[in-house]
Every structure is written in C-alpha cells, then in structure tokens.
Specification:
single chain; alpha+beta; 6-stranded mixed β-sheet; 4-stranded mixed β-sheet; 36% strand
C-alpha cells in the first residue's frame, strides 16, 4: 500500500510529496530544505528510488541538486522545462510528452499539462494526481509568467476534468490552508475548470 506524506517546506507554501511503499520512496518537487528531507528518509529507513518534477520553476527545484547527486539519481523533468530549471543536465532525466515510468514499485504516468509553464506535467500514480502549479483546490496556476499560456491552461484543465471524479488531487502549494481535493469536486467548484468545460461545450 502506498503512503503519501506532505512536506510543507520553504517560504512559499510549497508541498513536496514523499511517497513510500515498503522501504522504497519517491519524491515529487523537492525544492527546499534538503537536510530535512534527508533526515526524514533516514528516520523512516527509506531508499529513494526516484525524483520527479511537475515543472521547472525555481521553487520546485531550487536546492535539489545535492540530493540527486548524493543518491546518484536523475530527476525526471519534461524537456520543455529543462532550461527553465537551471539544473545541469547530468542530474536530469529529460523526457518528451506523455510517458509512463516504472520506478521501483511505482508506476508514474506523466500527463503534459502546459499553461503555467511550457513543460508542466501532472503525475498520476494509482488514483492520485500530483498537479504542481497546474491545478489547485479552487484555482489554477498563474499564466502571466514567461512560457505561460492561458489558452494552453484551459486545455489542460479540460483534460484533467475528464479524469475519474474520485481522482485525488495533490497540488504544489498549500494555498488557503489546503493542498488536496478531488477531480469531481473541482469540476463543480473550481471556476477555472468550470470555464474550461463551458468553453468546450460552446465550441462543440
């Protein structure tokens, strides 16, 4: 059975996710406080099998290079965000578009969701969706930044709206005291997702 621990780290309400199954672990978006992350792995006697990034913004990748090197791992990052991340290529495993990765006991399905950044993805593991800065409870990521695109964001939100309603959402920040939700709830209550769904109906 997969366990999910939310590590709220750094000054921007970032949520790093530590997933474990037995003694095997994955990290999603480790951007801050590598000493705390290393301590947590040691305390729980976990072996880090992989590191995944939802996108390349500094607050999601900032301090991860020493962690990657210490564990002799390459972080998975969609290739359109490699330059944005500022990380050296030797610590990255770039990939293009939709992919599925088998890492230890975990199967990670990367779903391209550009909009906040050109290489933004959501990571689906079992019935959980790690959305980075694409989808927040009741909101979506900013689209006024370099490589952002409002039209792409609407398409990405529409794509996510078609996932099973019981898909659990885990966002990249704890904004408003909440970082998790369900796709079914967001379909009804998230105004940005609702507009994306409405736009499709108008076009069709």
């Amino acid at each position: 059975m997969m366990n999910i621990e939310v590590l709220e780290l750094g000054p921007m309400g970032n949520c790093t996710y530590l997933l474990s199954q037995g003694q095997d672990a994955l990290l999603i978006d480790p951007g801050w406080d590598m000493n705390f992350i290393e301590h947590t792995l040691t305390q729980k006697n976990l072996t880090l099998r992989g590191v995944f990034f939802t996108h390349g913004h500094f607050d999601h990748v900032k301090d991860c290079e020493p962690l990657l090197r210490a564990h002799r791992l390459q972080g998975y990052l969609e290739e359109n965000d490699v330059a944005l991340s500022g990380l050296p290529l030797e610590v990255l495993h770039p990939y293009r578009g939709e992919q599925t990765f088998a890492v230890g006991p975990f199967t990670v399905h990367a779903i391209p969701t550009p909009g906040h950044t050109a290489g933004g993805v959501c990571l689906q593991i079992e019935d959980c969706l790690f959305t980075g800065d694409t989808l927040f409870p009741g909101a979506c990521g900013r689209v006024d930044l370099p490589s952002s695109d409002a039209r792409q964001m609407r398409k990405s939100l529409l794509l996510l709206s078609k996932l099973p309603e019981d898909t659990r959402v885990y966002a990249g920040h704890n904004y408003g005291g909440k970082c998790s939700s369900f796709i079914g709830y967001e379909r009804v209550h998230n105004p940005f997702m609702r507009h994306a769904i409405k736009d499709e109906k108008v076009i069709s």
